[in-house]
Recover the amino acids of this structure.
């Protein structure tokens, strides 16, 4: 019971001390399996959209069910099950990785090296970065911190709180499938439909709890206003929630024009306040970090009184 009580805390500490594994990262290995499954299940390009959706559904099931069951078996083992739960949650969390990638952008920005900052931000966003100016780089980085913070930290913790290690693994598997198949392109529109929708479902409640947490730890009034006035205008049903609330909490403005595959896309302005600078990247990281520790603290209180 003691290890279960401290599991999220110990997993966060392991993530802080060691970061993501340099070799044999479980999510990277899972990503390789996703690529192979796509080659096997995708089928002929001319197949009907119903058949393509069915193939995508079957591929997702074949990938997600075994890893979730493996996490359940390992975490249910007598004596060592709690240890496996901690290790599994550590492998699923991405808080330290989020810090490393964001600071890799902030450091060259402080040095005035836009070329290096563009290369670094290209590692965490899907938009074109070659012609980005300092403001666009900063906004893209903070948007990534807020949105990916929900996927890699808060939703992972939430489903661990609810279902233990299998919940965290299922969430991260769904995240990976959405990241690889969830594009609205001709190739993935139907094949990746289930992966995208399932990820949206799993992230719906965690995203809104995250937005509430951002509001509590930042400018609550502005965060609440931006969330309810702007989130429904965003393309992502969950990303819009955490980005608008996070930007409002930080009292900065995100969004604006961005280039995707050579096409300029006007994203709505999210948040309210001044134009962000490189210093705000660290403020966004601090907001995510403090929110994560608050969640772990609240989990410990709940576990102590009700477990």
């Amino acid at each position: 019971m003691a290890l279960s009580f401290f599991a999220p805390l110990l997993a966060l500490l392991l993530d802080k001390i060691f970061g993501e594994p340099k070799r044999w990262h479980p999510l990277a290995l899972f990503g390789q399996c996703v690529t192979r499954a796509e080659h096997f299940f995708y089928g002929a390009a001319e197949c009907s959209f119903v058949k393509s959706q069915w193939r995508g559904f079957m591929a997702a099931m074949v990938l997600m069910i075994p890893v979730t069951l493996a996490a359940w078996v390992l975490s249910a083992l007598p004596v060592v099950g709690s240890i496996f739960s901690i290790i599994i949650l550590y492998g699923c969390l991405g808080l330290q990785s989020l810090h490393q990638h964001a600071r890799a952008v902030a450091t060259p920005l402080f040095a005035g090296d836009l070329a290096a900052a563009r290369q670094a931000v290209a590692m965490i966003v899907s938009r074109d970065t070659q012609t980005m100016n300092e403001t666009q780089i900063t906004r893209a980085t903070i948007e990534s911190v807020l949105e990916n913070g929900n996927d890699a930290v808060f939703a992972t913790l939430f489903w661990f709180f609810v279902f233990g290690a299998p919940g965290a693994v299922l969430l991260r598997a769904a995240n990976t499938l959405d990241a690889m198949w969830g594009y609205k392109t001709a190739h993935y529109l139907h094949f990746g439909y289930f992966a995208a929708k399932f990820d949206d479902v799993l992230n719906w409640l965690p995203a809104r709890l995250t937005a509430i947490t951002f509001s509590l730890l930042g400018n609550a009034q502005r965060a609440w206003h931006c969330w309810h006035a702007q989130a429904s205008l965003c393309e992502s049903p969950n990303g819009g929630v955490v980005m608008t609330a996070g930007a409002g909490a930080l009292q900065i403005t995100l969004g604006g024009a961005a280039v995707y595959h050579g096409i300029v896309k006007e994203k709505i302005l999210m948040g309210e306040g001044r134009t962000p600078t490189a210093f705000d990247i660290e403020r966004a990281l601090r907001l995510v970090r403090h929110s994560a520790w608050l969640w772990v603290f609240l989990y410990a209180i709940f576990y102590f009184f009700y477990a």
Q: What stands out?
A: The mean pLDDT is 93.
